[in-house]
Design brief:
By secondary structure, the chain is an all-alpha fold. The chain is built from 9 helices and no strands. The chain folds into 2 domains: 120 residues, no CATH class; 73 residues.
């Protein structure tokens, strides 16, 4: 008998709770459904955007092989400005590797655009900075090289040693042995810690 009374009390309390809070529960359920549909829509849209960007990149590569430089350059430019974490840097590298752009300042601007992409992980950003500095070495832009590499050199990045070696080699190649030695000392100080 006490079990029946207990079950009836629980059932009554549950029924009363549902009656009192029916509007709130309905709103909560509606909000959960809206959130789920919005999340699924966003995820689907993002996936479609990734596929579209990949197709654009492939199309640009095909156009390069067919020597349709102007069209491919336009597509790659668009990809860089899409701020995609994978295809924006790849588009930049495709432009550089195939010498599609002769304006060095435009290439530097492309690098800067890609480096501002906050979707790219920090160590990948540092790798892009390394690649930018190598590009700048050919242009003999010492201030930009230092500005690009110093944040890596002054960090615990996995690319730190490479950054020091690059800047040291640059100074050696321009007969600035004292500056080169200063950066090599930074490397030795880090090793001794």
């Amino acid at each position: 008998m006490p079990e029946k009374i207990l079950k009836k009390n629980i059932l009554d309390k549950t029924t009363n709770f549902l009656k009192k809070n029916l509007k709130a529960l309905t709103v909560l359920l509606a909000l959960i459904l809206i959130f789920l549909f919005t999340f699924m829509y966003y995820k689907n849209l993002k996936e479609k955007n990734n596929i579209y960007t990949a197709e654009m990149y492939s199309k640009a590569a095909i156009l390069i092989s067919r020597e349709k430089i102007s069209e491919s350059k336009q597509i790659l430019n668009e990809i860089i400005y899409k701020d995609h974490k994978l295809y924006s840097p790849l588009a930049l590298y495709l432009i550089i590797d195939n010498k599609l752009e002769s304006d060095n300042q435009k290439i530097i601007n492309y690098f800067d655009r890609v480096l501002k992409n906050n979707l790219i992980k920090k160590e990948n950003i540092n790798l892009i900075k390394i690649k930018k500095s190598i590009y700048l070495i050919d242009l003999k832009k010492e201030e930009l090289i230092i500005e690009t590499l110093n944040p890596i050199i002054n960090s615990d990045s996995i690319w730190r040693v490479m950054a020091i070696n690059i800047i040291s080699e640059y100074f050696l190649s321009t007969d600035q042995k004292i500056k080169s030695q200063e950066y090599i000392q930074l490397l030795n100080i880090k090793k001794n810690k």
